Give the backbone structure.
Amino acid sequence: MNLNLTEDQQALQDTLRKFAAKEFSFAKRRALAKEGAGEAISATGFSPAAWQQLAEIGVLALPFEEAYGGLGGSALDTMVVMEELGRGLMIEPYLGTVILSGGLIASLGSDSQKETLLASIGSGESLVALAHQEPGKAFDAEVLTTSLNGPGDGLILNGNKAQVLYGAQSHQVLVSVNEANGISLFLIDSKAQGVTWHDQKMPDGTRVARLELNQVSVSEAARVGGKGAAGPALSRAFDVANAALCAEAVGIIVTLIEITSEYLKTRKQFGVTLGTFQALKHRMVDMFVWSETARSATMLATVRVATGTAAEAHWACAAAKVQVGDAARFVGQQAIQLHGGMGVTEEMAVSHYFKRLTCIAALFGDIDHHLGVVSDVLLAA
Amino acid sequence: MNLNLTEDQQALQDTLRKFAAKEFSFAKRRALAKEGAGEAISATGFSPAAWQQLAEIGVLALPFEEAYGGLGGSALDTMVVMEELGRGLMIEPYLGTVILSGGLIASLGSDSQKETLLASIGSGESLVALAHQEPGKAFDAEVLTTSLNGPGDGLILNGNKAQVLYGAQSHQVLVSVNEANGISLFLIDSKAQGVTWHDQKMPDGTRVARLELNQVSVSEAARVGGKGAAGPALSRAFDVANAALCAEAVGIIVTLIEITSEYLKTRKQFGVTLGTFQALKHRMVDMFVWSETARSATMLATVRVATGTAAEAHWACAAAKVQVGDAARFVGQQAIQLHGGMGVTEEMAVSHYFKRLTCIAALFGDIDHHLGVVSDVLLAA
Amino acid sequence: MNLDFDESEVAFRAEVREFLDKNLPADIQQKVRSHAEIGKADTVRWQQILNQRGWGASMWPKQAGGTGWNATQRYIFEEECVFAGAPAQLPFGLVMVAPVIMAFGSPEQQRTFLPKILSGEDWWCQGYSEPGSGSDLASLRTRAERDGDHYVVNGQKTWTTLAQHADWIFCLVRTSSDARQQDGISFLLINMHSPGVTVRPIIMMDGGHEINDVFFDNVRVPVGNLVGEENKGWSYAKFLLVHERTGLALVPQGKRLLVELKAIAAEAMKADHRLRDRIARIEIELAVHEMTLLRVVSASGSKRGPGAEAAILKIRGTEIFQTIYETILQVTGGAYVDPAVANRFFNMRKLTIFGGSNEIQKNIIAQMVLGL
Amino acid sequence: MNLDFDESEVAFRAEVREFLDKNLPADIQQKVRSHAEIGKADTVRWQQILNQRGWGASMWPKQAGGTGWNATQRYIFEEECVFAGAPAQLPFGLVMVAPVIMAFGSPEQQRTFLPKILSGEDWWCQGYSEPGSGSDLASLRTRAERDGDHYVVNGQKTWTTLAQHADWIFCLVRTSSDARQQDGISFLLINMHSPGVTVRPIIMMDGGHEINDVFFDNVRVPVGNLVGEENKGWSYAKFLLVHERTGLALVPQGKRLLVELKAIAAEAMKADHRLRDRIARIEIELAVHEMTLLRVVSASGSKRGPGAEAAILKIRGTEIFQTIYETILQVTGGAYVDPAVANRFFNMRKLTIFGGSNEIQKNIIAQMVLGL
């Protein structure tokens, strides 16, 4: 048993932390996000420059096998990356493109698909989105409305997809349909005939789109994985994504504690710093205890994803989402509260971290959903 | 709309508070509870002398109609009494005998039953227990195992009852059976042939018994209420009992806050009184806010029991049991915690109040049960 | 003890309801119900409509042009207004500065300011907080120095809600630095159109503009705008703090929002017992919280002071209101968040901070009730 | 990073399990499993059995007669013991005074005291707290005055766990009142059978007798029983406070209890989704809490200090443990409470208070980690 980071992981952590601090300070990111700033961030929701730099550091190719230009990183390496993206409030489309789509292609794709796609994701050239969820359905639904017709007159996709992370900004998109009593995935061009994107800016600055598929032609070659065989890989992909989201949340939580602790040490009221008030001090301790709990939960989920059975991983990811969700809620709310009026302004980093945490807690199943997963295991026992 | 106590209610409150302070200080009650003390309290679980004095003050007859020797008191008067019993930690069998059994006899009994029984309850002469719950069943179950045979060879009761408050100390006991698709009640002598009591001392010092009924003969005259017609009255009796329990809990909660506040003002650590520590101060405030919440919830339940429809009363009593349960848990736990080591000893009143609160919260449906009542109303809407 | 309204109260409620039915403009109602922003024009228009009916100031005494209603009537009026979808009246003039002017202002000040508050002609804002003196008001540093018939004001106020629309601001300013902090403060009424007044927006985390910084650069204020005595402003401000503030309980607002939540969640909560339990809890907490408010209203009818009740009402009210919004956020958005709902949720985050943070409310209770 | 135990660790676990299978007396195991009281005789008997195997002191170095195990081995050993139903070893000698004697005691003291701790021959208790100095240890008033080759001790200790069985007590006593409070304290070993020592039971709210007052009335203690230097006792006590105390995490105990809860609630939780969710939450919290413990164990293997981790482990461990008991209380008793279960629940109420209250743990974290 060993729960310490390897030297390589420590080096990766160090590189990313320095990169974020140097290139993407809060002030810089906030300036970029404003309309009319030099970069096209207000159109894409993220910084293409940062994306390229992440590619250069190697993190976009990190989880992929070396045979496909990757670095063969494990879920534990991803945890290190996500925590740093969280600390830096870097809302680049890592989760959707690298973790979800990259992960699905890596596990289901043919050799040639992996060669082409993983390389172009890893180099930062290509953004690939996953369009699985449908309006009014759960994020992990197994029965889909999106239809596939053919092969007579060719394969044709019709349907609606919701909550596609950075869909409107993507180059290609993985679309799920029911086929042969299971789920199939097709990779289509994001600008293909019949594809319409409805882009939406989320409160945390990320972009999420609705997707309309209207008589979209696909070829058999566009299929990723076997007919109706994508279900288990999708299920695993959401577990991996939730473990990654938990790690991002941990990065945000520890940053909020640092920021707030610093604020309490400098801000004066009634002639003394806020940090001398015991009620606030103990609340900071509660936040700290929650942060350690969130970290343990995330590590447990990540280790299970890396080395456990599918059932173990699913349980641990659900458990982590519950505990990290609780931690995010408590730490987020209290970080704002302890900042007083400053906390609810757009000027302070704390409100931006809070908004991102709020979104993370809702994405891919909220606390209730994941408590249900754990609770149902008890029922089955 | 008027939510203030009447002058009569204030006078009743005053009388009871003075009585409890004078006659039943914590020290006196604790001494009595020890084995071998002068009075028979260790055998009965309560003080017969206090019971007689309560009769003299008039509270044992308070809720009954004047025609039957009562004072015609309302649920609001009962609330005043129960809060004072709570403050004085007077675990006399008021709930079982006066509220439950007295209430059922008052609503279901014949004129002659009411004349005889309410008078003897009101005078403190007779203790009447209610034996409704059965082992392994809910406190308010409608399908019972206790059987009634006859009329051929006479009416015969057989069965087991659980959680009979002060059953072994009672003179008579109301027993429920299913009959004619409903619940019937029979009043039997607590020492009748075939009746066996298994008395148990509860952690709060009260007594609760299991009852075995083995071929117990009853007459038609022992019937209280119509054949199979006691269900609604029983349901109301438990609502009334829960409102009363909430009022008792409020009395305990405000007392715990007084005791703990006093302790924080006198006890010194690190050269200052504990009350100067802001974390503890704010926790006291949280306790106070909970106490006001508990009082509001209890008043809402009581007003609904007094003047609302059956559905309104049932909802409000469930709501009160949830909020008072939460308040009792928080205030009880924190009162102990703020007393430090002293709080977990038998020497301090705080631990005795805590134990009584723990029992009240469990009796006649815990928080989960009553949240379920409110939740189910939403489902039906 | 009873919860039933008596005949006259029932009749009063019917009268209010009928008035609202007939007089609340449909366009305003629509904006309120759809959570759209209510601008200055609509707020003023609604104040004028109320004032025409003689209901412009439900909490003022009759002789000042108010309704003279008792606490129960005010409670009924507020509840009906909220349920009908009426916009909130601007509190800074009506509820905050007017009682101070009535109690401590000169007859001249009363004649000048009160009618224009009632009519909606003057838009007021509050100048208490400063950068670096949030909860610790007494440490404020904005100075007013006497120069002939004027005070010359320099300094900065912050968190000034809706100052962008304001004609007047009531300020706490430092007029002496000799005494203990609280004793050198005066209560001054400043025309926002005076030279030297600058308003700078502060953008909130939901992207909205409600609050502002207000800068005073050698702003000349006639001495006639001093309320009461110089250096006694702190006691007037404190008078305001303990003035009845049951509005912070957010009871009718919460009830209205709970109806909305139950409508949104109607389908989802059938299948989801956790959501159902959460809504059941909110329903319980709100009903009990309303009872606490009614106890305060009822006791105020019998002339007992508000004590620390306002603090309890604010703590519980804001907590419950935020919980309802959190639950609405949870049931909208389809497994993620709905941006519009999320922004309302973020906007409500201020509730436990503004108007005296809940921590400050706890300090008040600790001192006033528990003697700690 | 991995959670898998390596081959040698797996073998070690098997060895421990086999030993427990063969050597844990069935009567003791039965008492532990049925939550019966474990008396002195059983505790001593089990200590002797462990000691015969060379496992009497899992946390001592080999040269002192301990096992020399690393943190992971100690964790495995503790877990297996708890799962098997072995009684707890008495901590006061083994874990609390022994490390102090090893670090600061004379060779003579080490020779005299350590073997009898290991063998179970000497029963130790702890004399720190006094009436009026609970969390504020440094204010203690028990005096030890030098008289020739002896100290004469007068005063009172309280909350002294299992003092009724004790042969020895390690005490903090005041040997000087000149200096700052902490600097006048010495660490003294006192024979409980000395004339002038009186033990008075304190009855707990569950009716049990675990703790005591201990009175010292002119008790003569040889100067040879002073550990380390006079007036340096505070630093030895602090050494003990930061000494590894992962046992307070109550992880194996919690896991054992959760198994019991799930067995008791097996039927009820099928129909009751609220109970099921509560147990699911406990299961989650405990698994995550165990991970926190494993992180500490793993870091300690790599020679990092325990820092404030013990405080976190204590806070979370005691909270979770009390929640499990509360839930057991909820599912037993048939719509009321089961008196025996209730008394266990009441007994566990001490956990967040004793061993440094959770408030004190928070002060430690605020200072050590957050610098507040």
